[in-house]
């Protein structure tokens, strides 16, 4: 991945970029520099655990997500990829508004998390003694409301995933937790750590109840309660559903996720501005 060096003189967000719609927040020069500098720091975890960088698929097959129980748990968050029908295309060419013409289903969804595309891409594979990967992708979620960089229609998620043994999955999460805690301390970001409260569609469903009894996801929260990172224990769920094996046995998996725009928000919350946050980053990098 290309390294984006922190500028010696932080850029200023003097470019007037307007929000074109709810949940659609463009980043000016200073925020963009902060975004790239933070993501470069996140890749240090990938380097530490020897996770090579890959680029995941831009769309996900709805059929594959269904096999992973995505729609049973999060049908309200999904964003479908549609295409205009032939009649719709004729209407557009004649001057009709896009909202007034028909869309046809494609069978694909926009990603809501980076790991889904990577895991689906490993279906049926043997990962040997263990496989680690890292990727950053733009993710999309249909939320009930949007709030600055805290909650967006589209955002970037850096993930570092592990597939292999149960012990290896646990060790990956332990290393990730230690890394995130140390990184936040270096950046001056105050974090709390607690079980996630995922937005399950059916709060009384079996998956939501199991999550409450035995949390498999923990979040790191900024001082205003924004979840900016998480560590996730999948057990052998994805290994079973996707036929992924480790030395002949069903693979266990775990992943670490960083919401890049949310870290930009947390740094601004802590240091007052993107420019001040970049100055802190320069100090951390020496």
From TrEMBL:
<feature type="domain" description="Aminoacyl-transfer RNA synthetases class-II family profile">
    <location>
        <begin position="132"/>
        <end position="286"/>
    </location>
</feature>
<dbReference type="InterPro" id="IPR006195">
    <property type="entry name" value="aa-tRNA-synth_II"/>
</dbReference>
<protein>
    <recommendedName>
        <fullName>Aminoacyl-transfer RNA synthetases class-II family profile domain-containing protein</fullName>
    </recommendedName>
</protein>
<dbReference type="InterPro" id="IPR045864">
    <property type="entry name" value="aa-tRNA-synth_II/BPL/LPL"/>
</dbReference>
């Amino acid at each position: 991945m290309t390294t984006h060096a922190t500028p010696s003189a932080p850029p200023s967000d003097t470019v007037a970029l307007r929000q074109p719609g709810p949940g659609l927040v463009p980043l000016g020069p200073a925020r963009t520099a902060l975004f790239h500098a933070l993501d470069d720091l996140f890749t240090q975890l990938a380097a530490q655990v020897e996770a090579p960088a890959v680029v995941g698929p831009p769309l996900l097959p709805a059929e594959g997500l269904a096999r992973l129980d995505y729609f049973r748990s999060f049908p309200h968050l999904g964003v479908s990829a549609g295409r205009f029908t032939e009649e719709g295309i004729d209407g557009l060419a004649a001057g009709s508004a896009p909202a007034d013409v028909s869309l046809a289903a494609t069978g694909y969804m926009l990603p809501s998390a980076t790991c889904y595309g990577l895991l689906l891409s490993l279906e049926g594979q043997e990962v040997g003694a263990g496989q680690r990967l890292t990727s950053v992708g733009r993710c999309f979620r249909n939320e009930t409301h949007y709030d600055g960089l805290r909650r967006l229609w589209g955002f970037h998620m850096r993930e570092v995933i592990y597939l292999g043994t149960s012990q290896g999955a646990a060790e990956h999460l332990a290393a990730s937790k230690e890394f995130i805690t140390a990184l936040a301390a270096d950046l001056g970001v105050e974090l709390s750590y607690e079980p996630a409260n995922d937005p399950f569609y059916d709060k009384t469903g079996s998956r939501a109840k199991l999550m409450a009894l035995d949390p498999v996801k923990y979040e790191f929260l900024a001082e205003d309660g924004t979840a900016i990172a998480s560590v996730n224990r999948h057990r052998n769920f994805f290994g079973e559903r996707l036929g992924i094996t480790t030395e002949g046995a069903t693979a266990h998996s775990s992943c670490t996720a960083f919401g890049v725009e949310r870290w930009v928000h947390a740094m601004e919350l802590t240091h007052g501005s993107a420019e001040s946050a970049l100055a802190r980053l320069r100090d951390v990098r020496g």
